[in-house]
Design goal:
The chain has 5 helices and 9 strands; from the N terminus they run βαββααβββααβββ. It is an alpha+beta fold. It has a single domain, classed as Jelly Rolls, CATH 2.60.120. Strands 1-8-5 form a 3-stranded antiparallel sheet, with helices on one face. The chain has a 3-stranded antiparallel sheet with strand order 2-3-4, with no helix packed on it. A 3-stranded antiparallel sheet has the order 7-6-9, with no helix packed on it. The protein starts with 5 loop residues before the first strand and ends in a 5-residue tail after the last strand. Bound molecules: fe (ii) ion (FE2).
Length: about 180
């Protein structure tokens, strides 16, 4: 449990990756997405069958990676708009482990995601007890930033695996 996050580059073949991109660009716009204009500035959609299929196909690989048998919980497609960001947060309880995959970006530079060191159970409990899994005020956010050690993963067509015992946030927020 102490070597997360794990980064896997070029996980999908070129053809699979292109198929995913094509689906996102040609089919997803026809689907009913929801919009989050407040924090993330993105459109999103849960459990699209195309991605649920891929998610299920990853079960064995994920079990091996995480070192225990896991089952898929849900999948989530997030499409950040101009100015979009991923604010500091801890994933919800179903995400005992999380797999992230960057499908595409309009920028040529990698999109850095900042991930905290693994939290102890006490730290996690304390954050959840204080209802700070999605902190909102600058004061609390800065306190969390200053009290944790962060690593940066430059997302550009990579898969990223991490456990729930991490706080994460992406560019747009100074860490
Ligand atoms: Fe998350």
């Amino acid at each position: 449990m102490d070597n997360y996050p794990i980064v896997v580059e070029n996980f999908f073949s070129e053809a699979t990756h292109d198929g995913i991109k094509k689906f996102v660009n040609e089919i997803v716009p026809l689907l009913p997405t929801e919009v989050d204009e407040k924090d993330f500035i993105r459109e999103y959609i849960h459990n699209v069958p195309f991605f649920v299929d891929i998610h299920h196909q990853l079960t064995d690989f994920a079990s091996e990676c995480f070192g225990e048998q896991v089952k898929p919980s849900y999948c989530f497609l997030s499409m950040y708009k101009e100015g979009g960001m991923c604010p500091l947060h801890i994933d919800r309880p179903q995400c005992r482990y999380t797999i992230d995959y960057l499908v595409q970006t309009t920028q040529s530079e990698p999109w850095p995601i900042k991930i905290s060191d693994i939290l102890s159970e006490e730290q996690l409990d304390s954050i959840l007890e204080k209802k700070l899994s999605h902190p909102e005020t600058d004061e609390i956010i800065n306190m969390i930033i200053n009290h944790n050690t962060w690593s940066t993963i430059n997302l550009l067509r990579i898969k990223l695996f991490y456990t729930r015992e991490h706080i994460l946030g992406i560019t747009g927020q100074k860490l």
